[in-house]
Amino acid sequence: MSESRRVVVTGVGLVSPLGVGTDTTWDALVAGRSGIGPLTRFDASDYTSRIAGQVEDFDPEQYLSVKDVRKTDAFIHYAIAATRFAVDDAGLAIGEDNAERVGVIIGSGIGGLPLMDKTWHVLNDRGPGRI
User: Residue 33 falls within a domain, yes or no?
Assistant: First the structure.
């Protein structure tokens, strides 16, 4: 293939409150199911609203090592899983011949708040040497 030729591969990968995986999410959407329910990730009793769209039945260790799961927030876990789904959906086989020409772009408006909060508490309670 000529260096000037561009190849664009598009795949869809979804991890959402409707399900883990593109097909699961799509099936729930078409069936009219809602991904909104009671907040379960933290005690929301002091809040006026106690509902949210949360990703359920997600095992990050299917996509990352145990060590990487511990070091990263859930939004990273979701992004990596969605990337795998998108690459599979595109039918893209990554090998030595194309690995340096393959990339994924992920956008996140905000993420990592649970880890930021936890780290802030460690900093204040135990000092910077514990971070």
Answer: yes
Task: Return the pLDDT at 38.
Answer: 96
Tell me the C-alpha distance between 7 and 60, whole Å: 31
Q: How many CB atoms lie within 10 A of CB 22?
A: 19
pTM of the model: 0.77
Structural domain contains residue 34:
yes
Q: Which domain holds residue 100?
A: 15-130
Given phi > 0 = left and psi -120 to 50 = alpha, else beta, which region is 123? Answer: alpha
Q: How confident is the model at residue 105 (pLDDT cuts 50, 70, 90)?
A: confident
Per 3-state DSSP, what percentage of the chain is helix, strand, and coil (rounded to 5)? 40, 10, 50
In the prediction, which pLDDT does 3 show?
62
Residue 123 lies in a domain: yes
Q: Residue 131 and residue 129: Cα distance in Å, rounded?
A: 6
Q: Per the domain annotation, does 10 fall within a domain?
A: no
When divided into structural domains, the chain yields a total of 1
The arithmetic mean of pLDDT across residues 84-111, rounded, is 85
